[in-house]
Amino acid sequence: MTIKVAIAGARGRMGTTAIQAIEEANDAIVVAALDYKYDGLHVHNSTVNDQCHGIPIYTSLAELAEHHAPDVLLDVTDPNAVFVNVQAAIELGIYPVVGTSGLTRSQLDEIAVLVESHQIGCIVAPNFSLGAVLMMKFSAQAARYLGDVEIIELHHDRKLDAPSGTAVKTAEMIQQYRPAHIQGHPEEQVHIDGARGADVDGMKIHSVRLPGLLAHQQVLLGGEGELLTIRHDSFDRKSFMPGIMLAIREVMGRKELVYGLEHIID
Ligand SMILES: NC(=O)C1=CN([C@@H]2O[C@H](COP(=O)(O)OP(=O)(O)OC[C@H]3O[C@@H](n4cnc5c(N)ncnc54)[C@H](OP(=O)(O)O)[C@@H]3O)[C@@H](O)[C@H]2O)C=CC1
Ligand SMILES: O=C(O)C1=N[C@H](C(=O)O)C[C@H](O)C1
């Protein structure tokens, strides 16, 4: 069976790389793009044309579905767009695979209820890179023994959201092992706002945005007289493609929300 994939975010950095990866696979094809503009035009290599060259663009998922009957919607858009796209896909019986960061806990809870009522699978992966998933798993394991943790995530300066979805997910995974507690000096004085980063149960998250970077994260776990550093670097968006293909192949066998690729790669 060939899996028919629609992509939301097809003009973007991830969308462009994902289209290539899906086209190279022998069991999936990209049938159409969902966008908020350029209805009726086509997208090819991140540029839009009116020459019918590339993938047809729709601004309505219902219309896209009527013409192309996709099995899966891959969403790599924008934190403000993703929730509506996922809701629309589920209502239409299209299985969402979501890479977009920024979904809130309450939105994830709503998606979980919606997929259950429609008996349809949905995979939300804060990070599709298999190396990053391992970095998150190893960090959670290590936090059982070294419970003072600071996360430093570093990304390109075109990134909209902070902290990254990966850092949030890492903190959530670590929370399962690390009892909530204050880190550092209990009477610490912060002289410039934000100097100690974001706070999750006393654990700190620092976000760096610089040109030249792509996606990187370092988890620092401190103990008496020692420091364990667990680091992952994505140098190329190709690093996310094996995880995307895995999720596209897996999602149709699911009937629930899967939040994090660690539940698939075990
Ligand atoms: N899970 C993972 O492994 C990874 C996740 N990401 C996440 O994926 C998302 C996209 O990243 P990236 O490709 O770098 O970002 P880009 O800005 O390059 O691409 C996003 C694209 O989505 C388009 N877009 C915005 N709103 C909509 C909408 N309502 N419907 C359809 N398309 C829309 C944007 O259009 P316009 O430019 O006109 O606004 C843009 O072309 C981010 O949230 C990022 O954090 C990134 C890498 C890996
Ligand atoms: O915006 C990005 O680039 C990335 N976003 C995701 C995140 O927020 O964690 C995944 C990866 O870090 C790249």
Automatic annotation (TrEMBL):
Q: Which InterPro entries match?
A: DapB_C, DapB_N, DapB_N_CS, DHDPR_bac, NAD(P)-bd_dom_sf
Q: Which SUPFAM superfamilies match?
A: Glyceraldehyde-3-phosphate dehydrogenase-like, C-terminal domain, NAD(P)-binding Rossmann-fold domains
Coiled-coil-forming residues are none
Binding-site residues, NADP(+): 37
- Asked if Protein biosynthesis is a keyword of the record, the answer is no
**Does Oxidoreductase count among this protein's keywords?**
yes
Please name the pathway.
Amino-acid biosynthesis; L-lysine biosynthesis via DAP pathway; (S)-tetrahydrodipicolinate from L-aspartate: step 4/4
**Where does the Dihydrodipicolinate reductase C-terminal domain start and stop, copy by copy?**
131-264
Under Pfam families, the record lists: DapB_C, DapB_N
- Give the first-level EC class, as a single word: oxidoreductase
Q: Where does NAD(+) bind?
A: 9-14, 35, 99-101, 125-128
Record's subunit section: Homotetramer.
Function text: Catalyzes the conversion of 4-hydroxy-tetrahydrodipicolinate (HTPA) to tetrahydrodipicolinate.
- Kindly provide the name given to this protein in its UniProt entry: 4-hydroxy-tetrahydrodipicolinate reductase
The gene name on file is: dapB
